[in-house]
Amino acid sequence: MIQENVLTWFLACRTTDVPENGGVCVKYQDDQIALFNFTRRGEWYATQNMCPHRMQMAISRGMIGTQGDEPKVACPFHKKTFSLATGKCLSGDDCGDLKTYAVKIENDLVYIGIEDNE
Ligand code: FES
Protein backbone atom coordinates (compact mmCIF):
# COMPACT_ATOMS: atom_id res chain seq x y z
CA MET A 1 0.00 0.00 0.00
CA ILE A 2 1.35 3.40 -0.92
CA GLN A 3 1.14 5.82 1.94
CA GLU A 4 1.12 9.48 1.11
CA ASN A 5 3.42 11.58 3.17
CA VAL A 6 1.61 13.92 5.49
CA LEU A 7 2.77 17.48 5.17
CA THR A 8 2.90 20.18 7.79
CA TRP A 9 2.52 23.54 6.07
CA PHE A 10 4.44 26.32 7.70
CA LEU A 11 4.00 29.97 6.83
CA ALA A 12 7.28 31.09 5.27
CA CYS A 13 6.60 34.68 4.16
CA ARG A 14 4.46 36.86 1.93
CA THR A 15 4.70 36.46 -1.84
CA THR A 16 6.00 40.04 -2.07
CA ASP A 17 8.95 39.13 0.19
CA VAL A 18 10.51 37.06 -2.60
CA PRO A 19 11.96 38.88 -5.63
CA GLU A 20 10.59 37.99 -9.06
CA ASN A 21 12.70 35.27 -10.65
CA GLY A 22 14.77 35.17 -7.49
CA GLY A 23 15.12 33.40 -4.18
CA VAL A 24 15.28 33.96 -0.45
CA CYS A 25 16.43 31.85 2.45
CA VAL A 26 13.84 30.98 5.09
CA LYS A 27 14.47 29.17 8.33
CA TYR A 28 12.42 26.26 9.56
CA GLN A 29 13.59 25.13 12.98
CA ASP A 30 17.30 24.39 12.41
CA ASP A 31 16.99 24.06 8.64
CA GLN A 32 17.58 26.63 5.96
CA ILE A 33 15.28 26.40 2.96
CA ALA A 34 15.82 28.18 -0.36
CA LEU A 35 12.50 29.49 -1.68
CA PHE A 36 12.17 30.60 -5.31
CA ASN A 37 9.59 32.73 -7.05
CA PHE A 38 10.04 31.60 -10.64
CA THR A 39 7.84 34.30 -12.14
CA ARG A 40 8.73 33.48 -15.75
CA ARG A 41 7.20 30.02 -15.27
CA GLY A 42 4.54 31.16 -12.82
CA GLU A 43 5.85 28.60 -10.34
CA TRP A 44 7.31 28.41 -6.85
CA TYR A 45 9.97 25.98 -5.67
CA ALA A 46 11.71 25.21 -2.41
CA THR A 47 14.88 23.22 -1.79
CA GLN A 48 17.46 22.81 0.93
CA ASN A 49 19.68 25.90 1.04
CA MET A 50 22.88 23.94 1.52
CA CYS A 51 24.73 23.09 -1.66
CA PRO A 52 25.84 19.45 -1.40
CA HIS A 53 29.00 20.16 -3.40
CA ARG A 54 30.96 21.98 -0.66
CA MET A 55 28.27 22.32 1.99
CA GLN A 56 27.80 26.04 1.39
CA MET A 57 24.57 27.77 2.44
CA ALA A 58 24.17 29.30 -0.98
CA ILE A 59 21.39 27.85 -3.12
CA SER A 60 18.92 30.68 -2.37
CA ARG A 61 21.42 33.09 -3.97
CA GLY A 62 21.75 30.97 -7.09
CA MET A 63 20.69 31.95 -10.59
CA ILE A 64 17.52 30.24 -11.77
CA GLY A 65 16.76 29.25 -15.34
CA THR A 66 15.46 26.48 -17.55
CA GLN A 67 17.32 23.58 -19.14
CA GLY A 68 15.13 21.95 -21.75
CA ASP A 69 11.86 21.97 -19.83
CA GLU A 70 13.55 21.54 -16.48
CA PRO A 71 13.55 24.46 -14.02
CA LYS A 72 17.00 24.69 -12.49
CA VAL A 73 19.19 26.64 -10.09
CA ALA A 74 22.94 27.15 -10.31
CA CYS A 75 24.92 27.42 -7.08
CA PRO A 76 26.80 30.75 -7.03
CA PHE A 77 30.04 29.11 -5.89
CA HIS A 78 31.05 26.60 -8.57
CA LYS A 79 27.93 26.73 -10.76
CA LYS A 80 26.75 23.18 -10.14
CA THR A 81 23.17 23.07 -11.33
CA PHE A 82 20.20 21.29 -9.81
CA SER A 83 16.66 20.64 -10.93
CA LEU A 84 14.23 22.76 -8.92
CA ALA A 85 11.52 20.17 -9.58
CA THR A 86 13.33 17.05 -8.38
CA GLY A 87 16.51 18.38 -6.72
CA LYS A 88 18.67 16.20 -8.96
CA CYS A 89 22.15 17.43 -9.80
CA LEU A 90 22.21 18.26 -13.53
CA SER A 91 25.94 18.91 -13.73
CA GLY A 92 26.73 15.37 -14.70
CA ASP A 93 28.89 14.70 -11.70
CA ASP A 94 28.16 13.05 -8.45
CA CYS A 95 27.93 16.00 -6.08
CA GLY A 96 24.64 14.90 -4.56
CA ASP A 97 21.08 16.13 -4.91
CA LEU A 98 18.99 18.79 -3.19
CA LYS A 99 16.06 17.95 -1.01
CA THR A 100 12.91 19.58 -2.37
CA TYR A 101 9.81 20.81 -0.58
CA ALA A 102 6.24 21.43 -1.67
CA VAL A 103 5.10 25.05 -1.86
CA LYS A 104 1.60 26.49 -1.87
CA ILE A 105 0.30 30.04 -2.11
CA GLU A 106 -2.84 31.17 -0.34
CA ASN A 107 -3.98 34.78 -0.07
CA ASP A 108 -0.52 36.07 -1.04
CA LEU A 109 1.10 34.00 1.69
CA VAL A 110 3.72 31.34 0.93
CA TYR A 111 3.57 28.01 2.76
CA ILE A 112 6.25 25.30 2.62
CA GLY A 113 5.30 21.67 3.20
CA ILE A 114 7.46 19.70 5.61
CA GLU A 115 7.07 15.95 5.82
CA ASP A 116 5.90 14.94 9.25
CA ASN A 117 8.75 12.57 9.91
CA GLU A 118 11.29 15.41 9.78
S1 FES B 1 29.51 24.85 -3.21
FE1 FES B 1 27.86 24.86 -4.61
S2 FES B 1 28.78 24.36 -6.47
FE2 FES B 1 30.41 24.24 -5.08
Structure report:
This protein is mostly beta strands. It has a single domain, classed as Rieske Iron-sulfur Protein. It has strands spanning 7-14, 22-28, 31-38, 43-48, 50-51, 56-57, 63-67, 70-74, 81-83, 100-106, 109-115. The chain is globular, with a radius of gyration of 14 Å.
Name some characteristics of this structure.
single chain, binds FE2/S2 (inorganic) cluster, Rieske Iron-sulfur Protein, six-stranded antiparallel sheet, mainly beta, globular, three-stranded antiparallel sheet, 51% strand, 118 residues
Task: Please outline the helices and strands.
Layout: E1 7-14, E2 22-28, E3 31-38, E4 43-48, E5 50-51, E6 56-57, E7 63-67, E8 70-74, E9 81-83, E10 100-106, E11 109-115
Antiparallel strand pairs: 1-11, 2-3, 3-4, 4-10, 5-6, 7-8, 8-9, 10-11
The structure holds FE2/S2 (inorganic) cluster.
Number of strands: 11
Question: What's the helix-strand series?
Answer: EEEEEEEEEEE
Helix/strand/pairing class, anyone? mainly beta
Radius of gyration: 14 Å
Low-confidence stretches: none
Going across the biggest sheet, name each strand in turn: 1-11-10-4-3-2
Task: Give the end-to-end Cα distance, rounded to a whole number of Å.
Answer: 21 Å
| Shape, per Cα inertia axes | globular
How many helices in DSSP terms? Answer: 0
Q: What are the bound molecules?
A: FE2/S2 (inorganic) cluster
Report the helical percentage. under 10%
Number of domains: 1
Task: Give the CATH level 1 class.
Answer: Mainly Beta
CATH superfamily: Rieske [2Fe-2S] iron-sulphur domain
The CATH topology turns out to be Rieske Iron-sulfur Protein
Largest sheet: 6 strands, antiparallel
CATH architecture descriptor text: 3-layer Sandwich
Say what oligomer this is: single chain
Mean pLDDT: 94
